[in-house]
């Protein structure tokens, strides 16, 4: 018989992708049997198996004692012990299938779940597991497998969020090299990659490994740079790993141990743990499946203490809920007409030969319906809401984040699939998201291994004796920054001193050796040097390496230790005063507009004052002189004429304010021109250099050429490569017409050193790029971040400035009180003032002419209403004559005319009254 079973197993594994047999499923009449057989395969002597057995039995008793669940039908569970043997697991599974079992709870291992799922697929028996957490078991390859706990996919997402939260980038994974371990770590790698992190080293441990085998693996882990260790294993192996790690001194400060929920399972079930065991876990972070506190859970916990001395683990709760889940599904199965019936498998019957007998293995005809009812169950269990998503995962996955401290554990936060890390329980985060957003703290303080509170660095330099190969450019110019000694292979310079000082500030030793790059004849290309990091030739590059956008795609850079940027340097000459120096403060356009406005304002004031002010009246020649005198005398506020009209005074006040600003600006600019020594150059900056066609010099093999051509669009034919500072000097002195250049474009750090002893040249314009120099490391190298911190410390304690002064401080040119020639004051600076003044003049004239025309129509109403050409011509002449007359004269004439008109009207009225009286007397006499 055992031989036949082995052949059967081989046949089922090879043929698991075959078509499912429908069988005879008589659902027309539902008959509830008295007993329904279910089975479970556990490892009784394992940590989980001990308590799961008790929980399963307790669940069956509770189901059978509740008549509302299966309505009289009893569950009969058969428990099988695999005794830590994969072969026994398979044999027990086949034995279960011989006994009209409708569902199998287990197996305990993900590895065995893969194998037994093929048997379940063939015989249509639902396979429910509360311990097989391998994410790949959700595959369509296993339709009859149902996981009644949360997949490892979720706790790997939680671990990835923890690593991201603490800003670590690389981790080492330790795992059992089977389906459970490998697939879990693959999920972890995917989750880390989506967060910009990675597994830098995988440390697989073979199944059934001895402590010697584990030691061999952990020794290699200790040599790695990452100190973030993620352990994904089984409870029975986890403690062996920790014991070996203690012997290798891997549980102290500097290490970070993060485990999946196997560690919380050990703590819960074996509580209280021996002091030696709890000492192994100090500072560990582990996950525990989150279960909402409820009356049902508290009641079961109370009953649990009466059933066993073992602690209550979440696996116990899931085991209990699995039985109830199956009971609810069976109840629905019977309500829908399901029957417990079995039929022979045609494929097994067709096997040739008499050596195999599979009559006892039958297909469960109602297996598909029962599977569907299991996935449709919605209930409240000990672990919370029991419900399946479309991909057959339990909904609402959540975990507690646990820190092992002292003799117990401390919850430092939660993780849920919907909200990520939080210090608030998942159900509160889901209902009140604002509570979480108000605080940036996602986890409480952790006590790390070694009893430290400060977050560990997470990595150290590999303790393998290997030195860093650091590439250094072998420069032939500006060796104050980087230079190689002629007598030896050593390097010196500003950049070298900054690097060595920063390395000395690191809290760990970093062995390194400089390697020269370049032929010593011309400056090497720093970009080409950086590409050698990716190819593995160098582990880092130290030197005058400018941080540019293209270069950041090649390597990671430290914090800049030299601020720099591209500048333009040109030959300059000293400006001297001239006969016409007083004209320099204003541009020609400014002079022209100012003169026009002086005349314009004078004319406006004359118009406004002409009819009311005797000082603005007289013969035309005198009036012209008055306008000119008044206009230009306002420049010094020395005008003698007083303004009488309101409009004239408003215009004059605004104009005097404009004159004050112009006068002050002119005075300040002229003072600067006459008293401060100045430098002049036809090139004012990069803009004027781009508009010209002159040749431009740049440092050979630098990024400057690509920037000028690619970013600024300068023709490459205009660019002349130069190597030495002496080449800069000669090319600038020769000029573009004698085989030289009009200007040199280079980084400010080089140019400042160049100008420290060459006073006939100067920087013009502003920096047109902003960058700096940094040290380059491979992408995602943690050494780049540590060196950045060290450089900041050098800056804060003043060492960075002292290194700068040591190498770059030179006797500067005697240029105190000297500045570059200031541009003339342009019209743009005063445009607003002129606009306001002009608008005021226009409005004043408009108001003046409106009032004048109104006055004219009152005095000459007949002329104002005339429409003929000759009459209109006469009206214009009369109007101009009216405007030219003094307003006081017009008013006097108006009063006289008004008086004469009133007298005539009175005389006419008296005659009319006398005539009326005479007529009335004659009428009265006639009537008598």
Describe this structure in words.
The chain has 928 residues and is α/β, with parallel strands linked by helices. It is elongated, with a radius of gyration of 49 Å. The chain is built from 33 helices and 34 strands. The protein has an eight-stranded mixed beta sheet with strand order 7-6-8-9-10-15-16-17, with helices on both faces. A five-stranded parallel beta sheet has the order 2-1-3-4-5, sandwiched between helices. The chain has a five-stranded mixed beta sheet with strand order 29-28-30-25-31, covered by helices on one side. β28 (696-699), α25 and β29 form a beta-alpha-beta unit.
Question: How much strand content do the residues show?
Answer: 15-25%
- The 3D shape can be described as elongated
Helix content: 40-55%
The major sheet is characterized as: 8 strands, mixed
Class by helix and strand content? alpha/beta
Q: Rg, please?
A: 49 Å
**Helical run tally:** 33
Q: How would you classify the quaternary structure?
A: single chain
The span between the termini is 171 Å
Can you lay out the helices and strands and say which pair or pack?
Layout: H1 2-14, E1 35-42, H2 47-64, H3 67-70, E2 74-81, H4 86-96, E3 103-105, H5 110-123, E4 127-129, E5 145-147, H6 152-165, E6 170-176, H7 179-193, E7 198-205, H8 211-222, E8 228-232, H9 235-247, E9 256-259, H10 262-270, H11 275-279, E10 285-289, H12 295-307, H13 314-335, E11 342-344, H14 346-349, E12 362-364, H15 367-376, E13 379-381, E14 384-386, E15 398-405, E16 408-416, E17 420-422, H16 426-431, H17 433-437, E18 468-473, E19 483-484, E20 491-492, H18 494-504, E21 512-517, H19 526-534, E22 540-541, H20 549-552, E23 556-557, E24 562-564, E25 566-571, E26 573-575, H21 588-609, H22 620-633, H23 646-675, E27 677-680, H24 686-691, E28 696-699, H25 704-710, E29 719-722, H26 725-734, E30 743-747, H27 748-755, E31 761-764, E32 771-773, E33 776-777, H28 782-796, H29 799-808, E34 818-820, H30 831-859, H31 861-865, H32 869-884, H33 887-927
Helix pairs in contact: 2-13, 4-5, 6-7, 8-9, 13-15, 18-28, 18-29, 21-22, 21-23, 21-30, 23-30
């Amino acid at each position: 018989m055992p031989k036949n079973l082995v052949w059967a197993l081989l046949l089922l594994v090879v043929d698991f992708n075959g078509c499912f047999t429908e069988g005879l499923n008589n659902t027309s009449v539902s008959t509830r049997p008295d007993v329904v057989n279910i089975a479970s395969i556990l490892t009784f002597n394992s940590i989980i198996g001990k308590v799961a057995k008790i929980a399963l039995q307790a669940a069956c008793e509770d189901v059978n004692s509740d008549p509302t669940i299966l309505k009289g039908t009893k569950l009969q569970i058969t428990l099988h012990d695999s005794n830590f043997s994969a072969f026994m697991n398979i044999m027990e599974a086949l034995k279960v299938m011989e006994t009209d079992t409708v569902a199998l709870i287990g197996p305990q291992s993900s590895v065995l779940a893969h194998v037994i799922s093929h048997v379940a697929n063939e015989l249509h028996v639902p396979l429910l597991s509360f311990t097989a957490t391998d994410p790949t078991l959700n595959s369509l390859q296993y339709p009859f497998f149902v996981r009644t706990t949360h997949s490892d996919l979720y706790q790997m997402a939680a671990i990835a969020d923890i690593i991201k939260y603490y800003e670590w980038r690389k981790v080492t994974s330790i795992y059992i090299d089977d389906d459970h371990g490998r697939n879990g770590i693959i999920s972890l790698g995917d989750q880390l990659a989506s967060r910009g992190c990675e597994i830098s080293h995988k440390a697989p441990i073979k199944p059934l490994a001895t402590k010697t085998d584990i030691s061999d693996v952990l020794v290699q882990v200790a040599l790695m740079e990452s100190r973030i260790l993620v352990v994904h294993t089984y409870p029975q192996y986890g403690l062996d790993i920790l014991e070996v790690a203690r012997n290798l001194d891997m549980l102290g400060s500097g290490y970070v141990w993060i485990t999946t929920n196997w560690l919380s399972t050990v703590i819960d079930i074996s509580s209280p743990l021996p002091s030696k065991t709890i000492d192994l876990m100090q500072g560990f972070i582990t996950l525990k499946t989150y279960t909402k506190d409820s009356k049902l859970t508290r009641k079961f916990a109370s009953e649990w203490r009466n059933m066993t001395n073992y602690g209550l683990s979440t696996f116990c709760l899931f085991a209990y809920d699995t039985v109830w889940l199956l009971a609810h599904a069976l109840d629905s199965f019977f309500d829908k007409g399901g029957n417990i019936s079995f039929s022979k498998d045609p494929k097994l019957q067709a096997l040739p030969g008499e050596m195999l007998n599979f009559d006892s293995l039958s297909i469960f005809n109602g297996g598909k319906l029962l599977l569907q009812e299991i996935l449709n169950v919605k209930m409240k269990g000990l672990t919370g809401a029991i419900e399946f998503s479309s991909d057959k995962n339990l909904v609402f996955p959540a975990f507690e984040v646990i820190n092992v401290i002292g003799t117990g554990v401390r919850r430092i936060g939660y993780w849920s699939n919907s909200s990520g890390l939080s210090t608030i329980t998942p159900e509160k985060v889901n209902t009140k998201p604002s509570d979480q957003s108000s605080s940036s703290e996602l986890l409480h303080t952790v006590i790390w291994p070694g009893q430290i509170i400060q977050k560990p660095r997470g990595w150290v330099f590999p303790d393998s004796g290997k030195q860093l190969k650091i590439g250094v450019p072998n420069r032939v110019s500006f060796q104050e920054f980087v230079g190689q000694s002629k007598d030896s292979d050593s390097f010196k310079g500003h950049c070298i001193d900054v690097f060595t000082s920063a390395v000395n500030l690191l809290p760990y030793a970093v062995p390194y050796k400089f390697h020269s790059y370049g032929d010593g004849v011309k400056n090497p290309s720093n970009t080409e040097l950086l590409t050698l990091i990716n190819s593995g030739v160098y582990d880092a590059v130290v030197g005058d390496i400018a941080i540019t956008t293209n270069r950041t795609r090649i390597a990671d850079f430290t914090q800049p230790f030299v601020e720099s940027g591209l500048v333009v340097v040109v030959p300059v000459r000293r400006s001297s005063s001239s006969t016409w120096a007083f004209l320099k403060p204003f541009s020609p356009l400014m002079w022209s507009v100012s003169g026009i406005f002086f005349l314009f304002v004078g004319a406006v004031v004359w118009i406004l004052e002409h009819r009311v002010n005797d000082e603005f009246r007289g013969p035309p020649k005198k009036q012209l002189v008055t306008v000119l005198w008044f206009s230009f005398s306002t420049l010094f506020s020395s005008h003698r004429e007083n303004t009488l009209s309101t409009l004239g005074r408003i215009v004059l006040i605004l104009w005097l304010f404009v004159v004050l600003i112009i006068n002050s600006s002119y005075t300040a600019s002229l003072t600067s021109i006459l008293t401060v020594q100045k430098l002049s150059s036809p090139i004012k900056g990069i803009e004027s250099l781009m508009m010209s066609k002159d040749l431009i010099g740049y440092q050979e093999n630098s990024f400057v050429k690509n920037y000028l051509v690619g970013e600024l669009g300068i023709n490459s034919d205009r660019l002349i490569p130069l190597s030495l500072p002496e080449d800069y000097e000669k090319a600038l002195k020769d000029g573009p017409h004698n085989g030289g250049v009009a200007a040199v474009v280079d980084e400010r750090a080089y140019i400042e050193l160049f100008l420290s002893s060459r006073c006939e040249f100067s920087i013009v314009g502003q920096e047109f790029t902003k960058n700096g120099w940094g040290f380059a490391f491979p992408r995602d190298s943690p050494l780049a971040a540590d060196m950045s911190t060290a450089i900041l410390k050098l800056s804060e304690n003043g060492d960075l400035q002292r290194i700068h002064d040591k190498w770059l401080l030179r006797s500067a040119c005697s240029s105190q009180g000297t500045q570059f020639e200031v541009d003339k004051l342009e019209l743009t600076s005063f445009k607003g003032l002129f606009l306001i003044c002009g608008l005021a003049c226009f409005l004043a004239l408009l108001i003046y002419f409106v009032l004048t025309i109104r006055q004219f129509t009152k005095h000459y109403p007949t002329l104002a209403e005339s429409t003929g050409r000759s009459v209109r011509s006469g009206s214009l002449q009369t109007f101009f004559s009216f405007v030219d007359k003094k307003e006081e004269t017009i008013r006097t004439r108006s009063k006289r005319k008004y008086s004469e008109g009133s007298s005539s009207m009175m005389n006419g009225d008296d005659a009319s009254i006398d005539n009326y009286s005479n007529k009335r007397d004659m009428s009265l006499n006639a009537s008598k």
